[in-house]
Amino acid sequence: MADILLEPARLDYTPQMLPEPEVSFEKHPEHKHYLNHEYGLLSWLLTVDHKRIGLMYLVSVSIFFMFGGIAAGLVRTNLITPTGAILELDQYNKAFTAHGTIMLFLFLIPVIPGVLGNFLVPMMIGAKDMAFPKLNLASYYVWAAGALFFVWQLIVGGLDTGWTLYPPYSSKYSHTSVMYAGLGIFITGFSSILTALNIIATVHKMRCPGMTWGRLPLFVWAMYATSVIQLLGTPVIAVTVVMLAVERMVGVGIFDPNLGGDPILFQHMFWFYSHPAVYIMILPGMGVINEVLTCFARKNIFGYKAVAWSSVGIAVVGFLVWGHHMFLAGQGYYLAMVFALLTMLVAVPSAIKVFNWTATLYGGSITFQAPMLFALGFIILFTIGGVTGLFLGTLGTDIHLHDTYFVIAHFHYTMVGGMMFAWQAGLHFWWPKMTGKMYSDFWSRLAAIVMLVGFALTFLPQFAVGYLGMPRRYPNYPPEFQIYNVLSTAAAYVQGIGYLMPIFYLGYSLFAGKAAGNNPFKATGLEWQTSSPPSPHNFETTPQVYFGPYEYAVADGLKIIPLNDGKIHDIVHEDPDLVGTTPKEATHGS
Amino acid sequence: MFAFMDTPLLPEQASEFSKEYDVLFWYITGVSALGASVVYGLLIYCCFAFAKKDGVAPKRILGSNKLEFLWTIIPLMFFLSFFVWGVRQYDYAINPPAETADREYTVVGKQWMWKVQHPTGHREINEITLQEGVAVKITGTSEDVIHDFGIPAFRSKFDVIPGRYTTAWYKPIKVGSYHLFCDQYCGQGHSQMVGKVHVLSQENYAAWLEGLYRVRDGKNPVDGSPAWEGRKLFLKLQCINCHNRESESRAPTLEGIHNTKRALLGGSTVVADDTYLRNSIRNPMLQVRDGWKPIMPAYTRAQVTEEELLNVISYLKSLKPGDLPSRSEMSPAPVGAPNIPDPAVPPVPAPTTGGTR
Fold first, then answer.
1. Model ipTM?
2. Which of A33, A50, B60, B176 is 20 to 30 Å from the Cα of A144, by its Cα?
3. Among the partner residues B56, B157, B189, nearest to A399 by beta-carbon distance
4. DSSP string of A238-293, one letter each residue
């Protein structure tokens, strides 16, 4: 063995990649990347490049986010006074429904899979594109068509059922565009299914040499788990919407008790999709956090396997807990008990993730650029969102808190505090890769702090007022709750300013930003080993992967012992101790 | 501007269950706060202790199975303790005890009001009046969409679903008036589908059953009580034509008359007890009130039976200042109706204004 030990050498992390192109956009204006290798509207509308499609999603979801945000602004402003400050009753109902449906179906569900998933999954696994590039484009158009149709219906006819669409209200009593809005949801669902299919196929078949399952970045693991949920869950919501349509249009009794139907059946079917859907929303966000935290802490992820398998665990158990939305709907004592138990079990993987993230910071060398601030914000807010979920999953405590502002606050702490912050972290982290430009450090950090403070103060009072019993979806409320609502609304404006800030400094960076360079954050992922912006086919040559993700400690100069051929073949992932160690030399090289 | 002093911090504990509920609530809160503090503490420690320093390389740590095991098992144990305790509490909350068997209330929800029926035959709308210390069972259903009958002060809530019956039970332990909310979104007037729960002491509750106790000002005697029956007669027999607030010159308003001293024509006085009230109807000329003309017609047995007369007297006894209805009875406007004040009628606070809850 001794003959293979050479002099300890400082590892430059890049050797895992074949020759890195020594070009950057600024020095070589002729450098052709995916943004400038062809021009014209058609080159965008007909592109099958996953990166361009990702950018098209970015623009689209940002617009829909603004629609949803405006609706949220109307809702919060109306709640300043106990009798409704600006809206009539039915206007308020349409506003909160528009906020909920747009944010869920057109922002939270597509944002990370659509933008970051599209852009990054092929690059992270060293592929040229998705497995089915044309299907990818088709999936964008299906989504865009459904989304535009949906928003158009919200504007011309409105929808006042809440995003939950419970019959018999939605099937018989609402006189708004329930059917057309449902059609919009139905169409966007197809896009979810197609995207999921594409990502699963890509992860299975398109990994570059050496990219084993155990070396996949955790973002890819998260996207994979998400896609499995989408593929299995979305058809159920599609079927449910069709059943609703059959009842509303033809009068077949499925959910309406007057026609012999059962309204609780709808709730079962709706939540069978919509509970896993919250994991569709949050899992990709958790994936982003893994990438960002490791990079800015310069650390391996603590417990790669635990984090990866907790994603899969969430995806599986997440399908079995839908009944916890219906504890008070008369679903039966033993059924409620089973759902409550499974709910407690699904809380465990999320807790594991939070502890692993925190432990990842231990022993690191942490810097605090904007993506890291967003990621820390995610952990802070998601922790609150997670523990408040325990109150709602516990049968006894849910009785009082069900359908109050406590639920609203819990949901926003996980979905906005979690997902929105993960999305911002991801957007800021990969913005230099997408555009080749770097944004303002100061303004981006300021935006992270404004969003965090605004967000936390918006929803903290809602926990209090929810415990006091204020029901959700109330435009009018008892006057003694006013102070809580005013606090919440004031902070919501601060939060709104936070969300507007990136438009300015990210937009500014597009035109006047400094060139970011290929790897401004010195990250180890494959996507960072190519040029910024990447060339149309991502890599000049097919990359070869020799070891797992997040070897930041190695990249930052930890000494390791290479094998006698001068290459690092593997870094053995079996050291259980908490202390920093020198990785053992590989024992199974060629 | 804001009623700071009225802003509550914690919800009232008005039922037996609410006290037990809060113990579990604060237990979960405590454990959650502890867990969050551990995470936040580590986060803050790491951010300060491991901020980037020149010449200090990060350590290469891949994980620890011991720690993974630890932070899987410890949260799981706490979560399971929530589960077990929560199930016991849920069991307690949804299964009415035997003592409630003969005190079953029914509630019917419809867009956008609550109709409550007491086992005694009394009926209420958007209000439910209960006796302190007496456990009651409540069964609900809906005429149209799904509603939810929620009383925060009791920590109670259950969906009211068309086509099936759902139940809850309460044992109120504190006298007072509490919010009643519809918690399941039910359309335009969802936030108007609110009301009050009144918990009364034993004696007030007994009086309330008779129609002699008001749970709030201006509230008519409860539907189903003797006073309510008397009120109907009071209108039917046209007593209201002279005994009203608009034409005070013809007859006294009778509000608050019971057991007061009345000066009679001729200088004597009399206490307006039940007998006096009865005589004033059967034979009004016997004792005429000083200051009024003797124009009150006598009502014979052919017009008012003895049973009916008891109900009328019960109503007169229940009258408090401001209770007498105007000659054209106003009922609350439906949700969404324009609020046009009637100049002939003093403004009645309609529930649509929101401020009356």
1. 0.88
2. A33
3. B157
4. HHHHHHHHIIIII---SS-GGGT--HHHHHHHHHHHHHHHHHHHHHHHHHHHHHHH
